[in-house]
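Handout, page 2. Input:
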Amino acid sequence: MPAAAPAEGLRERNKREKRARIERAARELFEREGFEAATARAIAARAGVGLGTLFLYARDKRELLFLVFADEARRLFAEAERALAAHPGAGLVDALMELFGRFLAFYAERPELAAALLREFFFRPYEPERLGALSREYGERVAALVERARARGELRADLAVPLAANALFAHYAFWTQTWLGARLVSREEAETRLREALALQVDGMRPAAAPRRTR
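Output:
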């Protein structure tokens, strides 16, 4: 029989529980008061930890925002994966909308948090050591959907998967910004236009139709 995994030590459990309290407190205050108004001191007090302890887990409020969103994003990734597993025949556009649509719904339910995320992700300097891991993970999820579509013949066999995934993700980023940033469209229109843009892009990546034979 394989050896049992060692029990979690008290110190590790305490650290995990403190981090969970800090992330929960940050999420609640970001959503209720907004990212700018919520202070690190208020987050620490709500979590029941000292300010110095909070900064052991996150260097600043921006890193707290990333920690909060990373947990939420991975939950949404898992939900989308389960939904797609239940419908293995879904086309690429439907699969992408299953993934992207969950994030759009998350933003719609949490407008204050969404506004902060939009500013930090799209309009602030890129920081690979903090934002990079989550961005790469998101990109890998999109690339995996493209690879599956290519493997089942929906896309050209010679398609460059990373390039295609970046192009498809760019449509999601554009319509998210157009909705939440510029406020030029409603959420419903953003989703409709996103689906249309993805369909147009995917149509251009399909295998060429075999030429008709003439007598």
